[in-house]
Design goal:
With 260 residues, the protein is of the alpha/beta class. 37% of the residues lie in helices and 26% in strands. The strands form 2 sheets. The chain has a 6-stranded mixed β-sheet, with helices on both faces. The protein binds adenosine-5'-diphosphate and magnesium ion (MG).
Length: 260
């Protein structure tokens, strides 16, 4: 599985000659098979970092490297799940997954792709909704399909931008568990997961990178042997200490957000 590196990365949004510096001198390394959660207040630059990794935008300065090679655009080595808009609204759940499968695995016939798509939908517990359109699915089901679609590519890198942000807590908990299980079964793809929810980050991450405006302030390594489950997570003293420190950072950086 590949490693990811940000080397002295700046990124500016340019609109109508106005330029806004969204990332400044980002230096970070995400190891092979590591699950990194990027956390921080809204507007600090999390999605911008993910978009650079996805190849949807290019750094204004510096380099973003995957396995030592600069990211030059989107590619089948990375799967992406966003909070919204991940699915084609005009295609059923199974067709959404089939489309991606056939794009990623050109050798598949349509029947083979359908069969594999149904297996993937089954894996994320949404097979019964295979023939429904996205608008006929609940938010949780839509994100299950989006995960199935991301799995269809079988890419070594997974990029997820607040994929569970719009879901209610019960459903969110179930999907976090599903993701932990899938990730462990896949024998650990390299994952970057954006969230502003500390509990979610503590369940999912091997490492948490806390962002203030435009840069990473601090990273936290989590005990890998902890139970990745909301009910027993905080039995672990080390996890509780990290939570306290991250909450403190949220407090400290709240002002930055108001100053913007
Ligand atoms: P986050 O995902 O952490 O909430 P973003 O990466 O989306 O933050 O945005 C970082 C900063 O860049 C924010 O201040 C945001 O307003 C600004 N920004 C995001 N997208 C654009 C854009 N297309 N044009 C101009 N500014 C943008
Ligand atoms: Mg965002």
């Amino acid at each position: 599985m590949p490693s990811i590196e940000f080397k002295h990365v700046d990124f500016s949004y340019v609109d109508n000659k106005e330029s806004y510096l969204a990332l400044e001198d980002i230096n970070a390394r995400i190891e092979d098979g590591e699950f990194l959660c990027l956390i921080g207040h809204s507007g600090c630059g999390k999605s911008t970092m993910l978009n650079l990794l996805a190849g949807l935008s290019m750094p204004s300065k510096g380099e973003v490297l995957i396995d030592g090679k600069p990211v030059e655009g989107p590619g089948l080595d990375r799967s992406i799940v966003f909070q919204n808009y991940s699915l084609f609204p005009w295609q059923t759940a199974v067709k959404n997954v089939m489309f991606t499968l056939m794009k990623a695995h050109k050798e598949l016939t349509k029947d083979e792709a359908r069969e594999r798509a149904l297996e993937l939908l089954d894996q994320v517990n949404v097979k019964s909704a295979a023939n429904r359109y996205p608008f006929q699915l609940s938010g949780g089901m839509r994100q299950r399909v989006a995960i199935a679609r991301a799995l269809a590519i079988d890419a070594p890198v997974m990029l997820l931008d607040e994929p569970f942000g719009a879901l209610d807590p019960m459903i969110r908990g179930k999907l976090q568990k599903l993701l932990v299980d899938l990730w462990q079964q896949s024998c650990c793809k390299t994952a970057v997961f954006v969230t502003h929810d500390i509990d979610e980050a503590l369940i999912l991450a091997d490492r948490i990178a806390f962002m203030g405006q435009r840069h990473i302030i601090k990273t936290f390594d989590l005990p890998r042997d902890r139970v990745r489950d909301a009910s027993s997570l905080y039995d672990n003293k080390e996890v509780r200490a990290i939570k306290d420190e991250v909450l403190e950072l949220f407090e400290q950086t709240a002002q930055d957000e108001e100053d913007e």
